[in-house]
């Protein structure tokens, strides 16, 4: 009986861990796709990692912005062309699953911009699995 219980517990742990690794891989892939879109000057495709909802929250130096469309509008206003966008690089510091459908990612971002000067900072992204897809529901970048 003890062996059966141990086997069942190990099976559950292995399945949960495998799911977490798959989810982590999906999130990192989305971040990679976002980086490529940004570096191609494509803000609209960069935004595909975000939750397309009025409840999306973006926190930056200007305060809190709500909504996918407003966030997209702000990105386009603040980064009107490829020169302003520069070349984006992410450095992932931590990926932490806080539930089976929620994760936060902490990292550094850096824009190399020869004409405008380099900028960078840190970010925390809150991810949620909605309808089987991982999306950023809150972004705090500074």
UniProtKB/TrEMBL annotation:
<dbReference type="InterPro" id="IPR032710">
    <property type="entry name" value="NTF2-like_dom_sf"/>
</dbReference>
<protein>
    <recommendedName>
        <fullName>DUF4440 domain-containing protein</fullName>
    </recommendedName>
</protein>
<dbReference type="Pfam" id="PF14534">
    <property type="entry name" value="DUF4440"/>
</dbReference>
<keyword id="KW-0732">Signal</keyword>
<dbReference type="InterPro" id="IPR027843">
    <property type="entry name" value="DUF4440"/>
</dbReference>
<feature type="signal peptide">
    <location>
        <begin position="1"/>
        <end position="18"/>
    </location>
</feature>
<feature type="domain" description="DUF4440">
    <location>
        <begin position="27"/>
        <end position="136"/>
    </location>
</feature>
């Amino acid at each position: 009986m003890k062996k059966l219980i141990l086997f069942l517990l190990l099976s559950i742990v292995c399945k949960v861990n495998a799911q977490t690794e798959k989810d982590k891989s999906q999130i990192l892939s989305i971040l990679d796709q976002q980086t490529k879109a940004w570096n191609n000057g494509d803000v609209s495709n960069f935004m595909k990692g975000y939750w397309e909802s009025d409840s999306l929250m973006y926190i930056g130096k200007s305060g809190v912005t709500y909504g996918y469309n407003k966030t997209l509008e702000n990105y386009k206003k603040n980064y009107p062309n490829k020169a302003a966008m520069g070349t984006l690089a992410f450095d992932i510091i931590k990926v932490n699953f806080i539930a089976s459908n929620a994760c936060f990612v902490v990292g550094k971002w850096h824009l190399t911009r020869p004409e405008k000067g380099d900028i960078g900072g840190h970010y925390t992204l809150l991810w949620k699995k909605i309808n089987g897809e991982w999306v950023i529901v809150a972004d705090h970048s500074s």
